[in-house]
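Table S2 (text version). Query chain:
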Amino acid sequence: MALINLKDLLNHASKNKYAVGAFNVTSINFIDPIMEAAIESNSPVIMQLAEVHFRYLNLEHIAPAIIRAAKEVSIPVCINLDHGKNFDTIIRAIRAGFTSVMFDCSEEPLDINIAKTKEIVKIAHSVGVGVEGEIGNIGGEAVGIAAPTPHEASAESFTKVGDAVRFYEETGVDALAISVGNVHGTYKGEPNLDFERIEKINNAIPIPIVLHGGSGISDNDFKKAISLGISKINFYTEMSASAVKAARIFLNENPDCISYGDLAKIVQADVKKTVMGRMEVFGSKNITASDKTLCISCDESSCGLTEPQFKPDAKTVVYDSLVDLITKEVLQSMRK
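Corresponding structure-token output:
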């Protein structure tokens, strides 16, 4: 099975009213359970590496492992850079073979966000890589040993419909992450999503919209958000916290344990269980079954989509040609 482009995958999700789970990898031990969950759920999946999590892993070392695993499974896999903040990081991810990058310049004024994102789109699209942008303020991502301080969204930072339209029209992004009451990390109190805003943004722009800060949102709210247009859901904090809890229980029950391998197996089993649960809630379970619209087998040059409205010659990234293509595009951009 080939890696799939973010644009093709999310367009399929948007049309068929389900959301694809995007799960962050912060350890090589996360790769197998996330893949196994997708295979057993017959679900497409997005594997993510976040720039803020580079403190835990080496991008160039782990990317080949994820790509190899993706090409050996029978379901569509998109590999995405999550919250890339710097130009260098974006280029590193593209060179490593990612099929999608998220460029997050949302902390900047809208004009600057648009200008910088537009350049990233130009470069990424030249080598067949999808781009996710963001407007509005979703808050910082969870990093560090201790749980982050719970926080709540500010209505002042919510994504404005007009800004979403302008951002899409001027940048050409393939997907847009929006702020509608969602936050990264842990929520202070109960999440309060602005469903009316989700629907208005979805109706105003012709690209899939993305919900970050999925941990802590109820199943019913997820389903309602998806019905109104959410096509990609980022999910990490709750997955990580559950895995740590499983490890803590195992160590308490086995205080003499000195086998990291056995501990890792416990963590992997919990990650797999969590991911499978989310895939069912997100509506992506059995999307790739033989009687559905995503194929369950294809060659290495196909995007994995067989519906006629998608171009049949969609290609995944070919690493051998990336350096030359990116260098040419960057030099052309610098000359302008």
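Notes on Table S2: Confidence is low (pLDDT under 50) at residues 296-319. The first strand starts at residue 20 and ends at 24.
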